[in-house]
Amino acid sequence: MNTSAKNCPVVEMKNIVKRFGTITALKNVDFKIDQAQVMALVGDNGAGKSTLIKILTGIYPPNSGEIYFEGKLVQINSPREARDLGIETCYQDLALVNLMSISRNFFLGRELVHQFGPINWLKIGEMSALTRSALADVGIQIHSPNDRVGSLSGGERQSIAIGRAVHFGAKLLILDEPTSALSVAETRKVLKYIENAKVRGLPVIFITHNVHHVYLMADAYTIIRHGEKVGTYCRGELSENDIADLITGQREK
Questions:
Q1: 37, exposed or middle or buried, with CB in 10 Å at 0-12, 13-18, 19+?
Q2: Dist CA 154 CA 200 (whole Å)
Q3: How far apart are CA 54 and CA 56, in angstroms?
Q4: How far out from the chain centre does Cα 98 lie?
Q5: pLDDT digits 0-9 by tens, 69-119
Q6: How deeply is 135 buried, as exposed, middle or buried, from its count of CB atoms within 10 A (0-12, 13-18, 19+)?
Q7: Topology of 3-86+171-248 in CATH?
């Protein structure tokens, strides 16, 4: 990354508008995230936060507005284009294959192979070793890379998705409700993995409606309500109750 890119936001979205027929889902929303920052994107169900992220990841086109990635104006027309830029997204359903091993899921779509004529043979041993090493680098310990993903807990499955994104050089990690439906112990592990990613310099957008996790983890938080940006606040500016009141509309900006 060049010096100018280091000195500008990883992502800056300006005046984003999205309409679905007669419904305006986003109204001139601005959003940005800086290097090595955990930015929470919070709001009630239907507030518009998922729509904003789907625009950033190429699922929806905006009706108007601009997106800058590392200081350059970009058009992101598909999830593949987002990934090519270095934007990795871990959704609630995680897109992991339960019947495959951890290492096969880790390298899914990026398999290491030996080529013998028209036949490709998977480098199972090498992928297993790299999976264990890569996960350990971000503080994730596994019993065996050959275990099936379907045997893992929700928190462990999240850890695989996070570790995979870090290993393959993501420049921005987006986590969609990563602690939803997890136990307290599992949630603590996932929050620790997020902290480890930040320490490695990876910026993280943390989409959640859990005010406590926002207050605990985020360096800053952008609040959206009814398709409009309420504001962006730095850690310590507001109390947990203040954040909750801004989300629900009991307090104005």
A1: middle
A2: 23
A3: 5
A4: 21
A5: 999 999 999 998 998 999 998 876 566 788 899 999 999 888 999 888 888
A6: buried
A7: Rossmann fold (3.40.50)
Quick one: pLDDT at residue 136?
86
* Residue pointed to by tokens 């990354």: 1
Closest C-alpha among 221, 200, 233, 229 to residue 52: 229
Those residues with Cβ within 8 angstroms of residue 173's Cβ, 6 or more apart along the chain or in another chain:
88, 89, 90, 162, 165, 166, 197, 202, 203, 204, 205
Distance CA 132, CA 146 (A): 10
Q: Between the CA atoms of 187, 154, 157 and 235, what dihedral angle is there, to the nearest 10 degrees?
A: -20
Q: Return the residue matching tokens 């050959």.
A: 146
Tokens (6 digits) for 46: 């239907």
pLDDT surpasses 70 at 162: yes
